[in-house]
Amino acid sequence: MNFKKFQIVICIIALFNPISLVLAVSDAIDVIQQVIKGIPCNYNGICEPQWGETAEFCSDCGGAVYISPSLPIVVAESIPEHPEIPKSLIINNNAVYTTSLDVTLSLSAENVFQMAISNSPDFAGISWEPYQTTKKWTLTKGDGKKTVYAKFRSPDGGVSQVVSDSIILDTTAPANVSNFLTFPGDGKIELSWQNPPDPDFKAVKIMRSEKFYPANPEEGTQIYNQKGTSFINLGLTNGKRYYYTAFAYDEIGNYASGAIASAIPYPPEVPPVILPPVVPPVVPPEIVPPEIERLTLEDFDFWQEGKKIPLIDGIGIEAKTEIPLTISID
């Protein structure tokens, strides 16, 4: 990039007549340097002794404006451009993203004493300021690509071409995960969820606590930090409640507010003991001798009070109650 240098011509008509000063500039930029009879003063309101300004001849340092009555009338004309001079503007050390409107600019230029920084290429409303290699700067509001512009000015009035750098402002966190569920088991809790649809979604960070739901991505114990949709938390104590918060985040590190879930692991249920049915033992049939099997009532004698009781129709006897009965067989 080249600096343009302009020769400012002071035209004075003076001896006994009033002094008239005529300035002609060959570009639309402000006049920043007047050199009158070798006396430097750029009239920018800043006293700059390093460029030869003094209080004796320069109003920037509190002195009166010096005008020589003996200068001839000359028409302004441009002089050759400066050779190429390295210059640069870098935002936040070449970072791609930022979550803050406030950034740091790194500036570099040779043989300059002023600079102008702007969020728009037309530098509307921007004033020149002393050159420095770093500067705190505020971007325009609203997420998206932001471009910062800079130009530099040399002591002799040359203004550099505009340099710029861009960065993506991202202050919006992704949505929370959805359907954040827990499935407790024996010494473990299985977690499942659905990731948000945001295009810059990067991963999910899950924090666990035994007291209450973690309020931020640094509170509690981290158990997961990936892009999946499920995780099994092992090595837990049965009967104790565990609290989980799942934080979705994007490429720049904006975290969602967090989705919560909790559960209590438990031991497996012991099934009841089912006893087999009790089967009674099988009793083999009793074997009766044939001679016994052929007996009838007629083969027996029935006695009561010393008297034999006869059979009635061969099928029964008539006996008295409450008196012993004696039965015999021959």
UniProtKB/TrEMBL annotation:
<dbReference type="InterPro" id="IPR036116">
    <property type="entry name" value="FN3_sf"/>
</dbReference>
<protein>
    <recommendedName>
        <fullName>Fibronectin type-III domain-containing protein</fullName>
    </recommendedName>
</protein>
<dbReference type="InterPro" id="IPR003961">
    <property type="entry name" value="FN3_dom"/>
</dbReference>
<keyword id="KW-0732">Signal</keyword>
<feature type="signal peptide">
    <location>
        <begin position="1"/>
        <end position="24"/>
    </location>
</feature>
<feature type="domain" description="Fibronectin type-III">
    <location>
        <begin position="173"/>
        <end position="273"/>
    </location>
</feature>
<dbReference type="InterPro" id="IPR013783">
    <property type="entry name" value="Ig-like_fold"/>
</dbReference>
